[in-house]
Amino acid sequence: MGYVAVKGGTKAIEESIKRLKYERVHKGTAIELHKIEAGMRGLIDQVMSESSLYDQSLSAIAIKQAEGNPEEAVFLLRAYRSTLPRKHVSRIISSENMKVVRRISASFKDVPGGQILGATTDYTHRLLDSELEKESDKSIQDWLRAYQEENRSTEYNQKHMDDLNNLPKVLDYLRSEGLLASCENNDLQPRDVTRKSLEFPSKRSERLQILTRGQTGAVTSLAYAVIRGYGALHPTVGELRVGQLPVYLDHPLDDGQEEDSYYIGDFTATEVEMLIPLTVEKEQGKKEIEFEVGYGMCMGQNETKAIAMGILDNCLERPNNEFPSHNEEFVLYHIDSVESTGFISHLKMPHYVTFQSKLDSIRKSKDQTTEQEVGLHE
Amino acid sequence: MNKTYNFAFFDEGSKREIRRATLKAIAIPGYQVPFASREMPIGRGWGTGGLQLTLSLIGKDDVLKVIDQGSDESVNAVNIKKLVSDTTGVRTTDSTADASLIQSRHRVPEVPLQKDQILILQVPLPEPLRGFEPSEHETKKLHAEREYSGAWLMLFEKIMKYGIMATDADHPVMVHDRYVMAPSPIPRFDNAKLDNSEALILLGAGREKKVYAVPPYTKVSSLAFDDYEFEIESFTNQACILCGSNDVFFDELVDEDTGETYFQCNDTSNCLEIVNQKQSLGVK
Q1: Which of A7, A201, A360 sits opposite B73 (nearest CB)?
Q2: Which of A316, B151, B183, B191 is the most buried (most CB within 10 A)?
């Protein structure tokens, strides 16, 4: 056993990279990118959200290169993202303009515009479907034809499609009923944590940005801890929406009139507004319950993460030293995938010098103890 | 050279921004300047802070040396060197004296640095006060108020517990009589090399998003008490089995056959140079 740095690094790395490629391809079949895009929507959405880079094709490459490991795929996309200059900033997007494909409220049964289940695994039985073993492109296409036949555009459908582009928000209903304080639109330029590092106390725009980029598992776990007892909230899903949001850019030379802006495309997002009851003290010690809102928004369909984000957003609005989940440094510093996985994995690097230094310290402190013991006996 | 990416990986705007933070760091020795640390193609915690500094500073005429815990050949050093030379095409070297930029993890080279060189140290944990104060908001205040009793108490408590200061690598230093600074986990043996250095020393922490600096000819002293002096790692009466040096930092090795402990220079390129020199002089 020796504490010497690994030698022959260059050669070893080259061989290791070859071996990695071998592991990826050794079964002799290449997975085509369009198949990843076609069949791995969940993984693509998770990877895009954690990378904060909305691009299905690039995600598919990353997933392929990473052999489906989300931690590695996010890492690849984030590193790629670092090389992209920031050329444009979109116009402010209003989430009322979402083309909704799914929308539910756990607070009100009868929400204006209705509950729209859309595509969800929520009510599937999680029974492994052995039929999928036999699924072929042909069987899929037959099924698709039948499905389209079933959902042919009728007048009824058309009317409802229009409604979906302009669904009223559940929270607006609560505001009109006076149960939720109305708030001003805050259209200040957000602070971008990728351009300026986070300083404390943080701004809400920074918190939301870090939460939405957070590792799905980490964000979910911390929010879970909050509602299980390591936190002071009891939230309800006011509204959860999934749909497409349009993005517009101003002409770079214009003064930015809305009608002159360019539509550059849509992106799918999950938006969650959590309702969180809060006891507030009024005059003469009278207590009242009011609602507060926790906001979650993620790229792609990432519902658990968006709900968890909504919970943590509100936690961080109400700092409470009793719970780490209400401490902004604790939450914001530890949920980023690239940062946490990077630092954990760096422990695999050689620490020979630092360890040698520690050995020296341990030996000296042992000598000290022996000296003292000898001193006592004398 | 990989032409898919801009020279030195980043776009020019990013490089300029990192250099701006670096200039501020040089202007306030020992102060941790926050910067918008980018995600890199290597892992956070694997030297992304140092790498960002290197990439922001490197020009076509630079000569780069990268060492990891003393070794030019260590896998991570090789990997970083490869990334930089792939995206810049600059020349790399093992020789400390030939390098204009030296990126290092946890060692200051044994060969004294020159005034036209820049040493870039990779930093895992830049905050020397983190040991007793987990909050960044609080430690920032402590630095601003020069409130360092906690740093002294940490050392004092170790003396009470172990009879010695019992710090290992990363023993805190006072820079220019103002800021307490984490020298990055260099062994205590290397702390003295930071003091009054002829070369510019930059420290980059990518994950923690901080840059700080020890400009040339800056006073750097290791924290210690009058009656409990700062002690470096001791290798009493040891000499390198390869080159015979005795005033350097060693790797401790065990001979697999005899079970005996022996020592070898940790700074491998320096060791090799000494061996070669002796051979050319005909010394056995």
Answers
A1: A7
A2: B183
Q: Rounded to whole angstroms, what are the CA distances from B268 to A14, A360, B258, B265? A: 22, 21, 24, 6
Q: How far apart are CA B44 and CA B52, in angstroms?
A: 11
Domain ranges (residues) in chain A: 9-81, 95-119+137-335
The domain limits of chain B are 12-222, 234-284
Look at residue B178 and give its three-state secondary structure.
Answer: coil
Contact B68 A329 (CB under 8 A): no
CATH 3.40.50.1110 fits B12-222, yes or no: no
Which residues in chain B have Cβ-Cβ distances shorter than 8 Å to A11?
none
Q: Which of A353, A354, A361, A363 should be substituted to probe chain B, the one whose Cβ sees the most B Cβ atoms within 10 Å?
A: A353
Contact between A46 and A210 under an 8 Å Cβ cutoff? The reply is: no
**B275 vs chain A: nearest CA distance in angstroms?**
18
pTM of structure: 0.87
On chain A, the residues whose CB falls within 8 A of the CB of B71 are 4-7
- The DSSP element (H or E) to which B151 belongs, if any, is helix B149-162
> pLDDT, tens digit, for every residue of A22-34?
999 999 999 999 9
Residues of B in contact with A3 (CB under 8 A): 251-253
ipTM: 0.80
In this structure, of A9-18, B101-110, B217-226, the range with the lowest mean pLDDT score is A9-18
pLDDT tens, residue by residue, B97-127: 999 999 999 999 999 999 999 999 999 999 9
